[in-house]
Prior knowledge:
- The chain is of the alpha+beta class.
- It has helices at residues 2-30, 69-98, 107-123, 128-188, 195-211, 276-311, 332-335, 373-384, 419-423, 442-446, 463-470, 484-524, 528-561; strands spanning 40-41, 44-46, 58-60, 64-65, 214-218, 224-228, 232-236, 239-240, 243-247, 255-262, 265-268, 323-325, 345-352, 358-366, 391-394, 400-403, 409-415, 429-430, 439-440.
- The chain has 13 helices and 19 strands.
Amino acid sequence: xxxxxxxxxxxxxxxxxxxxxxxxxxxxxxxxxxxxxxxxxxxxxxxxxxxxxxxxxxxxxxxxxxxxxxxxxxxxxxxxxxxxxxxxxxxxxxxxxxxxxxxxxxxxxxxxxxxxxxxxxxxxxxxxxxxxxxxxxxxxxxxxxxxxxxxxxxxxxxxxxxxxxxxxxxxxxxxxxxxxxxxxxxxxxxxxxxxxxxxxxxxxxxxxxxxxxxxxxxxxxxxxxxxxxxxxxxxxxxxxxxxxxxxxxxxxxxxxxxxxxxxxxxxxxxxxxxxxxxxxxxxxxxxxxxxxxxxxxxxxxxxxxxxxxxxxxxxxxxxxxxxxxxxxxxxxxxxxxxxxxxxxxxxxxxxxxxxxxxxxxxxxxxxxxxxxxxxxxxxxxxxxxxxxxxxxxxxxxxxxxxxxxxxxxxxxxxxxxxxxxxxxxxxxxxxxxxxxxxxxxxxxxxxxxxxxxxxxxxxxxxxxxxxxxxxxxxxxxxxxxxxxxxxxxxxxxxxxxxxxxxxxxxxxxxxxxxxxxxxxxxxxxxxxxxxxxxxxxxxxxxxxxxxxxxxxxxxxxxxxxx
Length: 562
């Protein structure tokens, strides 16, 4: 009777093992399309023999997932690199669209139209139409600079919004991983395998690795610790240490990324990310876009500087003045320092009568690196030596005013020092920041007759207009190695190379990552044919086990009836 009881229990274990195997196969089949699911297998082993050496059948172990930790680690290594290339592709394409010259309304076209307008004025210096056209094209060029600079700045603020979304998603995934840690520990305390929970946790870590570089490891209790960037612990045991977007000192409205350990303890993590979408978003915002904006500023400053240097020393139609205020100003502290960006030499002021005849020429000497603005203003007054003729003064806002005290007027002459340009007298353009704020000078905006075309108040004089027109082909950028157009085209060319290079590298990276995912799929994904084949075998084994139990049951009935 004892052996029959043993046989009965052996049959029950066989039935249970095959039932569990069939259930596992069904679970695999139902999750064939579930992202991140790893197929599971039921492992069996022979039960320990009885004291006399008779076998006791089979013992089923908890189902285990088919999973390769090495392959998963490689995927976590390649995911953030892929995130870098795809994020870069997204924003390089947006930048390229901003610089698009195809429709004929780009910055390059505006520069060409502007220089052509100067050429036209040099041919017709007394033409109202030519002056109006130049005034218009100058305004268009300045507007194109401001618009392109503003759009690049707009992309930076767009990235701020995406950073907030990325931070929010990182925190969501971190909370999920923390909760999975807790659930897995509770589930496996009773000697069960939390296969589905582990799949879900690994899937969350997988998604997280696309956003930031991740280093994760599991301890003996089943907890996964997640470290992002160089050294920020996002998840440890049941503890979650979130990220937070913050505005702090430095550039206005640009978000920083903080790690929050406690309510009173936080750390700036903006520069700790080495790979992933987060790192590239910060890189594009703070380096790539800033770099293009700085190059636009350099170009705008270059055009403004070279045009104004000539324009300030020229005259237009009836452009003499009895009062002129500089476009730029210096704060009180700056007035005590040597005036920057000026050169040694002299600049001229011509006193003219109502018939535009030069009455007197004053030459004011300037020493670069020594003379302050008050020094230069004082020297102007000392040189003229008669406030009734002409007087210079520094206004309360730090600007300079030149004023005649009689019926006479004044014009500027030769300027070896760049003083007129530096302080902003008689400039065609005004700018303090470059492409961001470049615009027509106040006098040019007021009246196109103030556009300088000649050097003297002589009808038909076109010398200044000719010199400015020649700037188009003059290498004045990058220490005299590039023209304005060459400099701008170098920006476009470099951008195109970046786009092309990133596309090639992204394609290669995607291929590598896909290979690892395919390897993982070949190991862990559900194969429907295999599962159906296994199910048939498990079914037959189940039926055989049921038949064995039926036979043992009949034998026990026979014994009982004896």
